[in-house]
Design brief:
single chain; about 100 residues; mainly alpha; 3 helices; about 60% helix; elongated
Length: about 100
């Protein structure tokens, strides 16, 4: 495939989780390959969606604890739904 902005000759894919670390004083890193962009977008989307769905399911369990026989399913269902949403959203945005 032809790219408008090809990667430099010494390009290596940056390690996860960060492209820029102001605390460590590292310069920013660019992503040139589509697979790198997709991987970073997908992983960060999974992390963010997972955190929010875990928080929401935790709140639901606390509020509805009197139905404890069914409430243990809520985090599992939320994790599955959040995972599917994250893979779809991360793939659409990353590609």
């Amino acid at each position: 495939t032809r790219t408008i902005n090809p990667p430099p000759p010494n390009y290596t894919s940056p390690s996860f989780p960060s492209l820029y670390s102001p605390i460590a004083g590292q310069p920013g890193t660019y992503l040139y390959l589509t697979s790198d962009v997709w991987r970073f977008t997908l992983l960060w989307t999974l992390i963010i969606y997972g955190a929010f769905h875990l928080a929401a399911s935790g709140y639901a369990v606390v509020v509805q604890w009197k139905n404890w026989k069914i409430m243990w399913l809520v985090p599992i269902v939320y994790a599955l739904v959040g995972g599917v949403e994250a893979v779809l959203a991360g793939s659409i945005v990353g590609l």
